[in-house]
Write a structure and sequence with these properties.
Elements lengths: L15 H12 L11 H16 L2 E9 L7 E8 L3 E18 L5 E16 L9 E3 L6 E3 H6 L10 H4 L2 E9 L5 H29 L8 H38 L8 H9 L8 H17 L21 E18 L2 E16 L2 E17 L13 E2 L6 E2 L22 E7 L1
Antiparallel strand pairs: 1-3, 2-3, 3-4, 4-7, 5-6, 8-9, 9-10, 10-13, 11-12
Helix pairs in contact: 2-8, 5-6
Length: 425
């Protein structure tokens, strides 16, 4: 395992994006609370932690800043509803992962990644005190007014700054860029390796030809000069071929995702007729968050936002999910006031079966989502804090399929997006 004392990310305490990165590294193993994430993000993490314990697997993330955007940058994308505004930021980083099954061989992976995070905050001047929020102290759904005055269940008091802003979606995407220092290291590795290889090869050839003795100072200097020249010229050529080969390999993995380019904007244009505030980035983050919960759940059909059938049995061995940065829009249809949207989601998954790790597996899931077109989008929506439309009681839908106060049923698709089908393609 990696050394625990290593400093990973020195977060700016006033920067919610950096606090999330810092916390997530340790929250995965239950060492720190993920206070910077929203309720659904914390719930998805809880399900993954349960899966790791069930499989008797330890896993660590280690994230360190690198590259051109190590300090983070907000994308020129914002979306909002009546009370909440969301925006996305990204960080270029070096991501390390260790998956250690009990009794099995640890799997180590190091990659350059771009971290995408969506922050949701209250719009200045908006009164959200009647909105429902999950108490950070005891987890009970309560009105924000109650949390500011004192949670009716545990008595904890909070300031609005402790509730918002919060990170509502996050995912990692591979970064194929090189910094100047990384490019220098790449070139030097090949140049030095080629020079050493040429020198050793020259010595071997001289020995085979019986020229090794006597080895004069002049012949050694000559061989060193040839090795240096070979290292500079041939090393540069080999490093270029290696880089091109790597890019071709990555391009080959990317080809199946090419159909996703531009599709999101067409769908967003269509959706704005119904929801002017709609953003495809929002739907992408929402879909990935729901998929993580579905794939890590012991029984996905118990989740209120999953309306489909049983998942393939192999997903019970799933221990980690990486989004490959592409979600391709395929089709949509309206029926009885509901919109059914089918998208292809490209993932890179890690499995542990019988103590053996299988990681880096590219998979494509065809996902069909559904939503009531007549209901506005709520950017603070969470399955952890539903409000019953019949009696207006607040409850946690991950624990109750029906309202615990009046027994009324609750259709998630009448309030937010739900997933009604998942196919492995």
């Amino acid at each position: 395992m990696m050394k625990e004392e290593q400093v990973v990310w020195k977060a700016d305490s006033s920067n919610i994006y950096e606090r999330f990165i810092e916390q997530y590294d340790e929250a995965l193993n239950g060492e720190k609370e993920l206070t910077a994430g929203d309720q659904d993000t914390r719930y998805a993490l809880k399900l993954q932690q349960e899966r790791l314990r069930e499989k008797n697997v330890k896993m660590r993330y280690r994230i360190t800043p690198r590259g051109f955007m190590a300090d983070g940058k907000s994308l020129p994308r914002k979306w909002m509803d009546r009370h909440y505004v969301s925006e996305m930021a990204y960080y270029t980083s070096l991501w390390e992962r260790v998956i250690e099954p009990s009794g099995g061989k640890p799997y180590r992976q190091k990659s350059k990644m771009t971290i995408y995070e969506t922050k949701t905050d209250v719009i200045g001047g908006s009164n959200v005190e009647d909105e429902i929020y999950v108490c950070p102290g005891c987890g009970a759904p309560s009105k924000i007014r109650d949390l500011l005055n004192g949670c009716q269940y545990c008595g904890s008091k909070f300031q609005m700054s402790e509730l918002y802003p919060t990170i509502t979606s996050n995912y990692l995407v591979r970064d194929f860029s090189f910094t100047k220092d990384e490019m220098k290291k790449h070139l030097m590795k090949f140049m030095i390796g080629t020079a050493i290889g040429t020198f050793i090869f020259g010595i071997i050839i001289r020995g085979v030809k019986g020229m090794l003795s006597p080895l004069t100072v002049g012949s050694i200097i000559s061989l060193i000069l040839i090795s240096v020249f070979s290292g500079v010229v041939l090393g540069y050529v080999l490093s270029s071929y290696a880089l091109i080969g790597s890019l071709i390999k990555q391009a080959g993995r990317t080809v199946p995702m090419m159909g996703a380019i531009g599709a999101g904007k067409r769908f967003e244009f269509f959706m704005k007729k119904y929801s002017p505030e709609f953003s495809y980035e929002y739907l992408t983050g929402k879909t990935i968050a729901m998929l993580k919960m579905i794939l890590f759940a012991k029984n996905a059909q118990e989740l209120p936002f999953y309306l489909g059938g049983p998942l393939e049995g192999r997903f019970q061995d799933l221990v980690d999910v990486l989004f490959r940065g592409a979600m391709g829009f395929r089709s949509m249809k309206e029926k009885d006031g509901y919109l059914h949207v089918t998208v292809d989601v490209f993932l890179e998954n890690a499995y542990v079966t019988d103590g053996k790790v299988r990681a880096g597996k590219d998979e494509k899931l065809r996902v069909t989502l559904v939503k009531n077109l007549n209901v506005p989008i709520q950017y603070n929506f969470s399955i952890k804090k539903l409000e019953c439309p019949n009696c207006h009681g607040s409850f946690d839908a991950t624990k109750n399929k029906t309202c615990p106060y009046c027994g009324g049923t609750y259709r998630i698709e009448d309030a937010d997006w739900a997933i009604e089908d998942i196919q492995v393609i």
